[in-house]
Design a protein that fits this description.
It is a single chain. By secondary structure, the chain is α/β, with parallel strands linked by helices. It folds into two domains: 232 residues, ATPase, nucleotide binding domain (Nucleotidyltransferase, domain 5), CATH 3.30.420; 127 residues, Nucleotidyltransferase, domain 5 (2-Layer Sandwich). 42% of the residues lie in helices and 21% in strands. The protein is built from 20 helices and 25 strands. Strands 1, 2, 3, 6, 14, 15 and 16 form a seven-stranded mixed sheet that branches. Helix 16 links the parallel strand 23 and strand 24. Helix 2 crosses helix 4 and helix 15 packs across helix 16. The longest helix has 25 residues. The N and C termini lie far apart (61 Å). 51% of the residues are buried.
Amino acid sequence: MNLMGLDIGTTGCKAQVINQDGKRLGFSFREYGVDTDSHGKAEQDAEAVWQAALEVIRQAASQAGSSSIGALSLSVQGDAIIPVNGNGKAIYPAILGMDYRSAAQADRCARILGDRHLFNLTGMRPHPMNSLTKILLLRDISPAVYNSASRITTYADFILGKLGAPGITDLTMASRTMAWDIEKGEWSEEILHALDVNPGLFSEVVPSGSPVGTLAPKVAEYTGMSEKVILGAGGHDQPCAALGSGVTGPGRGVASTGTAEVFSCAFKKAGNRDAFYKGFYPEYSYTLPEMRFTFSLNHVGGILLKWFRDNFCDAETRKSAETGVSAYKLLDERMPADPTKLFFLPHLNGSGTPWCDMDSRGALIGLTMDTNRHDVAKSILESLTYELAMNLETMEGAGLEVNEIIAAGGGASSLPWLHLKADILNRPVIVPKNHEAGSLGAAILAGAAAGIWDPAEAAAGIARSEKTIEPQSGRVKIYRSRLETYRLIYPALKEVNRRIAYE
């Protein structure tokens, strides 16, 4: 029996098929769009996402041998909501996690229930990212859609319903909504009653890796797979990626660089919830039983490098077009070997954790007449990693243990960045062989749903490393001093940036 993991991202979806040794047998990717505007809107055609998902499922299955696939599970983008009718069809565009129009609704939640009380109940501070605030937004801007919805789903229950298991979501996604009581393990009657939200809009919740049904006949016919394919409850993309990276307990953290940069880890229970609360760190369910999960967030990661490439690196872009070598690789090759004395505050879209200050702005400090764009490129990587280091320190202050760093996403292919992470974080950085950790984690959960393995044991065996980057003591010492300088920048510029934001 082979296993498929489906990864539903914000701008594209992937399907990966593995055998029971973890070898990749099939892979497919499709892009889709996001509708944004200057007022914070970020919506998406959920039915178009489903069609893209169908295509990657069919293509990956064909590569691996459609009849060989015995189970399928999924990894999905968090926080988006999709109102559906009784047939599971979207009746309004998906309102995505990055849609910040629900700031007023988040404030309303805090005012009615209390910011700290909501965190104590759900592990989430009121924020426009939370699914519940988006449900309130939908009710405010389109009451007819809200009132006609049979259910309001996340991408987890939306896609599972399309595949053949309607009305079911997983514990990781439920516990990200700010409507789930993480201690009682149920939809919070107190929260939903206080906000006058119908509990019947929410799906049944099961643990990740639970079998929830079999493939719908129409889907089986289109993809060439059997109707007997077992569907497994999957998870939010970050904990799925952590599972696919081999995180089976405390001690390991995952530095995942995509559009944003996320640092995540699993734990039994937060020892210092005050630190979680003050640092805006969520506390929600992991993809493995009896464990919880958190992450730090920098709104810009790979997208900051793309911004720099597009605006300042014409020479590398032209050479890339001529040679086929990535412009990022060309930048890597020209970066100075030694630590820079430049500091780039990477708050081009506000700051992420531990400040969550949407008024903060980017800054480049330390320029001299000798500075060139290769110095600036390295300072961007350094400063993104300084942000990571401060989040790691805060997490450790909350009682979490992180001895090793696993690199995931696009950042795992940049050797200079890997060395920076090792030197600035002063920890070994492990590079997995399989960089598609989200869909790999989903495939591991598919195997759990099929009953062929324990997901923790499978993750430990399948998530093999390609190499390990060790910190270099000389640079560790230099970067420790640079980090102390970097800490001063955000507080020093906070009032300046606030004035810029509101002038």
